[in-house]
């Protein structure tokens, strides 16, 4: 029990860990509030309060992301064009992914500043552009995970062939299973977030605006729990 509490405290003491916890609470509150409001035909005071609480947490995360540009830039700079021995398709998708993420932040900052009356411009176009960039980043992440799984399976088959011809190297079953599960979880997380990203685009674009609050909350909670699990397990899941 004490170790679990200490582990949770350690997560809260880091910026990324706290953001993931707040994100989970944000979408979880939206899920619960949406369900209560739908059951009571919008007359549930508790449901409305949970939706307001969710909106406040979302606003909190938006403000905190005002300081994420430099860390994203440092990550993109360190990655550069990727290692030369890395698969070329993965390198290309990773570079484009980093570019979309880098552009996302200033667009969201401008949208927030417009809503806060810090600058005089319409926020709608900037929210749309930032959401579109987020969706592109998620799609690239899904494609990258799928490519990683394909390459990983090829490597496993090659190791199996090498072992059959007398090589002493044998694949680590537990490690292989964990790596595959991590990529599958990343795909599920990104697909959940992508569904919400489309929902927040302007009306008329695919299923934009058609999700009820509880469905947005369910998809976001699913993605958040996966991301939180990957962080606790040492993975690299991350979502806006």
TrEMBL record:
<dbReference type="GO" id="GO:0005778">
    <property type="term" value="C:peroxisomal membrane"/>
</dbReference>
<protein>
    <submittedName>
        <fullName>Peroxisomal membrane protein 11C-like isoform X1</fullName>
    </submittedName>
</protein>
<dbReference type="InterPro" id="IPR026510">
    <property type="entry name" value="PEX11C_met"/>
</dbReference>
<dbReference type="InterPro" id="IPR008733">
    <property type="entry name" value="PEX11"/>
</dbReference>
<dbReference type="Pfam" id="PF05648">
    <property type="entry name" value="PEX11"/>
</dbReference>
<keyword id="KW-0576">Peroxisome</keyword>
<dbReference type="GO" id="GO:0016559">
    <property type="term" value="P:peroxisome fission"/>
</dbReference>
<keyword id="KW-0472">Membrane</keyword>
